[in-house]
Amino acid sequence: MMSRRLRNRLLLSASVVVLSLYLLFGPFRVRDASGQVSLRAVASNFTLRQLKQNLANNIKLGLDLKGGSHLILQVQTDDAVRAVTDGNAEKARAVLQEVKIKFKNVTAPAPGRIEVDLEDSANIEETKSRLTTDFGPGWTARNEGTKVIFEMRDEEKAEIRERAVEQAMHVIETRINAFGVAEPTIQRHGPPQSYQILLQLPGVDDPERVKNLIRAESRLELKLVDSGPYPTEEAARQALGGTVPPDKQILPSRERRREPGAPAIQYYVVEKVSVITGNDLRNAQAVPSQTGGSIYEILFSLRPSGAERFGTVTSANVGKNLAIVLNDEIKSAPVIKEAITGGEGRIEGDFTKEEAEDLALTLRSGALPARVTYLEERTVGPSLGADSIRQGFAASIGGLAAIVLFMLFYYRLSGINAVICLILNLLLLLAAMRVFGAVLTLPGIAGVALTIGMAVDANVLIFERIREELRAGKVPASAVALGFERAFTAIFDSNLTTIIAALFLFVFGTGPIRGFAVTLTAGLVANLFTAVFVSRTLFLWVLERRTERMETLSI
Amino acid sequence: MYELIKNPNVDWIGLKRYFILFSVVLLAIGGASAAWRGFSLGIDFSGGTLVNIKFKGTPPPEDQIREALGQQGIDIGKVIIQPISDPLAGIRNEVLIRLPQREAAGGAAESELDVEKRAILAALARFNDPAAVASRKIDLNTVSRDRLREALLQFDPLGLVASSGRTAADAEYGKYAAAIVTYRDQQKGGLIGDLSDLKAVADLPPKLVDALAEHFFAGNAAMISAEIVGPQVGQQLRQRAIYVTLASLVGVLIYIAFRFEWIYGVAAVVAVFHDVLVTLGIFSLLQEEISLNVVAALLTLIGYSVNDTIVIFDRVRENLRLRRREDLTKIVNDSINQTLSRTILTSGLTFLAVLALYLFGGEVLRGFSLVLVIGIIVGSYSTLAIASPVMLWWQAWRARRAARRRVVGPAAAAKAATQKEKERKVTVSR
C-alpha cells in the first residue's frame, strides 16, 4: 500500500514530466490527412523523424546557432527635427507674404531654430503672434533687433524624435516583411533617447541587400519642368539669369533614352513645389517595360486627392514636360500629352527586375522619416552555427556523462536518483524555455552546463547531509527526512542568489547574454523542483516499498 | 560508502594570515598587470571589425593575406591575423582577421560601418582561381540563397522558364538553391570542395549539376562570420557591463543581508569581489580577450561563488543554533570542515562540466569557459579563505566595540550587555 502523500507526490512529478514532454515534442495530431480521428494518425506522431521535427519547431535557436544577421541602427532623428523646422520656415515665408509683412530673410540655421529677419522692427509683435499661432505650442519666440527667433521646445523635439523612430520601425518592418525574411525581430534598443533599433534577421547571411533596402530613400516627387535639358548645371543657371529664384530648382537627370552623343548627366530647371509627392502614392509595382527586353519600370497609382490634383495640373499643362523625381534625381521627364485623370503613372528608368522591385517596395512603404546609420553588425553563417551546436552539445553531453559516471560510482543506488533528477532537470529546462518563448543561444548552452553543475550541487548537498545523519546513527527514513530538511535552506538560498544575478543579466544584458540568463533561470527553477521535490519523492518511494524497516541505504 | 575525506579537521581560520597574504599577492600581480598592460578588450568593447574566414585547404601564409588586404586599402599595420586551432580537431582551416576601430570615429565612419568587412571579402577573391574570377562566374561558396535562386532563374540551366513559365521556374530553382546552400552549410562546413561534389545531393537533378560549371565555381574561401561594432556601441556596451556587474553584486548583497545578516552579506560580497578582481587580473596577465560573453561568465561566477559561500554560512547559522555557548571561530571552522567534502565534490564536478566546455566548446565559448574554469577554483578558495575571515573579523570588531562600552560605567555596561545579548539572539534566532 502506498501512502496517499507519496501517491500525490508521484502523481505531481509524473504530470510535470508528461507536460514537459508534451511541450517539447507536441503538438500531436489525432486526425489524419482526411480529417478523420484515427489511431494511425496518433501513431504517426511518434516516428523519430516527426518527434525530431517537433522538437526543432519548439526550441527556437538564437542567431549565433542558426545563422543570420543582427544589426543595430541609429535613427538620425535630427533629420526629422530638421524637416519640421524647414517646413515651418517655408510656412513662415508664405504667411508673411500673405499678410504683406516685409522681411529680408527667413533662415533655419539649426534644427529647431528659425530666424526671421524683418525689414523694420515695426512688425515684430505681429510677426511673433502670427507665426506662434501658426507654428503651434511647440515653439517659443523672442526678438533680437529686427530679428524674430523661434525655437522648438525640448519636449516637442523629443516627441518628434520619438515619432521618427516609431515611424522608421514601421517602414523598416514593411520593407523587411516584403523581403521574405522568416521571423525578423525589430525592436527598440539601448537606453531611452538613444533612438536605436535592433534588427535581427534569421537565416540572412548576406545583410548587404537588406541594408541597401533599408537605407534606400524613396522620395518620389512629380514636378513641372520649367526648361531644359541643359548639358551642365552652369548652363541651367545661365538660362535663369545667373541665380536660381526661390521657387525653382535645378535637378540632374540620368535619363536612359537620350539622343546619342548627349552628356551622361543633364540638368533641368523645375518648379520647386511638387505636383505630387510620395505621400499621395497609393501603390507602386514593378512591371516589365513596354519597350521589352529585361528592362523594368514602375507603375504607380495615386490616392484620390493626389489623382485629382494630378488631373488638374496635367490638363492645364499639356505640352509641357513633367519631371519624375526620385531622391532629387530626375528619372524621366516625359511630355504631358493629355490630361491624366486616371491617377496612374509610370517611372521609366534603367532598372533591372531586382532594382525595380526594391524601388517599388520602398515607394510603397513610404520614406524613412530620417536617415539611419549602422552601429553594429553581426553576421553568423549557418555553417558556424551548425559547428557551434555540435560543439556546445558535445561539451554539455561530455560534462554530463562524466558527472553521471561519478555520481553512480560515489553514491551507488542513490546516484541513480541523482541522475534521474539531472535528466529531468534538463527536460524541464527546455520545456520552460518553450513556455517563455526563450531562444537557445550558445552562451545558453553554457547556461545548461552550469545548471547541470548546480543541480549536482543540490544533490550532493542533500546526499552528504543524509550520510552525516546516517553516520550519527539515524535510521534511513529519518536520515533522509533530516537530510532534505537541513539541506533545503542552503539549496534555496544559493539557487535564489544565482537567479538574482541572472535577473540582472536579463534586464541589462543584450542578445546572447540574455539567452544565457533565461536558460540559467529556467534551469535553477527546475532544479529547485527536481532536487528538492522529485528526488525526495523517489527516496520516499524506495523507502516505502520495503515493508520491513530498512536498515541500510545505498548512498 | 565511499568517502573523499574522513572527518577533516583543518584550522581554516588559523591559516587566514597565509590565505590573505596569498590573495593580496594575487591581487597585486593582477592589479599591476592591469595597470601596466591593461586588458585586451574584444571588439564588443573596443569596437572594430572581426571576420572569420574559412579556406578550402590550408590557409595561405599570413603575409599573403596581409598583402591582399593591403591592396584593398586596409592599413595592414593594424590587422591582426590569427589562425583558429582547435585543441581536439586540430587545424580547422579558419583564420580570424581583426581590425581595430578606425581613427575617424565621426558620423562619416558610422555610416560606413562595414567598409572593412567588404574590403576583406574583396581581398579573398585573390585566393580564388583567377580564371574563374576573370570569367565573372558566381562563387557558390559565398553566394546567398536568394542570389543563387535569382542567378539560376536568370541562366536557366534546365530551360524551365521556357517549359513551365517564370513563376514555376522561380519556385523550382528556389528549391535547388536551398538544397545547394543547405548542403554547403550543413554538410560541408561552409565550403563546397568541387562542383561535382553536388552530385551527392539527392534533391538536385544531375543535369543541373552538369550545367552549373558554366556559370558557377566553388571558390577557395568563404566568410563564416563577421562582427562589426561601431565606437558608440562599444562605449555603451563597456559602460553597461560595469553597471550590470555592480548592480548584480548589490542585488546579491541585499538578498543575503535579508536572509542572513548584513555581516554575512558583506563578507560574501567581499569574497565575490575578490574573485572577480582575481579573474580579471588573470585575464590581463594572459592577455585573454574580454568580450560580452566573458562579462556574462563573470556574472555567473558571482552567482556560483556566492552559492558556495552561502552553503557554508548556512551551516554556520545552523551550528550557531545548536551550540550557543561555543566560540564562533570554532563553529566556523567546524562548519567549513563539515561541508568540505560537499565543496570539493561539487566544485570538482562543476569543474568537470566547465572544463569540457572549455576543451570542446569551440572558439566562440573559449573566453566564456575560461572565466568559469578560473572562477570555480578561485570561487571555492575565496569561500574558504576570504568570506569566513571577513565575517569573523567583523563579528570580533563588533564585540570589541560592545566591550569598550561596558568599561564606561555600570549603566552603560548593562546596556552593552543587553546589546550583546541581543546581537547574539539575532544571530541565533535566524
In terms of quaternary structure, the protein is heterodimer
Class per helix and strand makeup of chain A: alpha+beta
Mean pLDDT of chain B: 83
Computed CA radius of gyration of chain B, to the nearest angstrom: 31 Å
State the largest interface: A-B, 86 and 86 residues
Uncertain runs of chain B are 105-110, 425-430
Radius of gyration of chain A: 35 Å
Q: What is the H/E string of chain B?
A: HEHEHEEHHHEHHHHEEHHEHHHHH
Notes on the protein architecture:
The complex is a heterodimer of chains A (555) and B (430). Chain A has 15 helices and 19 strands. The mean pLDDT of chain A is 84. In chain B, α11 packs antiparallel against α12 and α12 packs antiparallel against α16. The two termini of chain B are 33 Å apart. At the A-B interface, β18, α12, α13, α14 and α15 of A face α4, α7, α9, β7 and α11 of B. β18 of chain A pairs antiparallel with β7 of chain B.
Task: Give the structure's gist in a few sentences.
The complex is a heterodimer of chains A (555) and B (430). In chain A, 54% of the residues lie in helices and 21% in strands.
Structural key phrases:
heterodimer; A: 555 residues; alpha+beta; 6-stranded antiparallel beta sheet; 4-stranded antiparallel beta sheet; 19 strands; 54% helix; 21% strand; B: 430 residues; alpha/beta; two-stranded parallel sheet; 17 helices; 8 strands; elongated; disordered C terminus
Write the layout of secondary structure elements.
The complex is a heterodimer of chains A (555) and B (430).
Chain A: H1 4-25, H2 39-44, H3 48-58, E1 60-61, H4 63-66, E2 68-75, H5 77-98, E3 103-110, E4 113-118, H6 124-135, E5 139-144, E6 147-152, H7 154-179, E7 185-189, E8 196-202, H8 207-215, E9 220-230, H9 233-239, E10 248-253, E11 266-271, E12 276-277, E13 281-288, E14 296-302, H10 304-316, E15 322-326, E16 329-332, E17 344-351, H11 353-365, E18 372-380, H12 382-436, E19 439-440, H13 442-471, H14 476-508, H15 511-545
Parallel strand pairs in A: 1-19
Antiparallel strand pairs in A: 2-8, 2-18, 3-4, 4-6, 5-6, 7-8, 9-11, 9-12, 9-15, 10-11, 13-14, 14-17, 15-16
Helix pairs in contact in A: 1-12, 1-15, 5-6, 5-7, 12-13, 12-15, 13-14, 13-15, 14-15
Chain B: H1 16-36, E1 40-41, H2 43-46, E2 48-55, H3 62-71, E3 80-86, E4 90-100, H4 107-111, H5 115-124, H6 130-134, E5 138-139, H7 145-155, H8 160-164, H9 166-187, H10 206-212, E6 216-217, E7 221-229, H11 231-259, H12 262-286, E8 289-290, H13 292-322, H14 328-338, H15 340-360, H16 366-408, H17 410-429
Parallel strand pairs in B: 1-8, 5-6
Antiparallel strand pairs in B: 2-4, 2-7, 3-4
Helix pairs in contact in B: 1-12, 3-5, 7-9, 11-12, 11-13, 12-13, 12-16, 13-14, 13-16, 15-16, 16-17
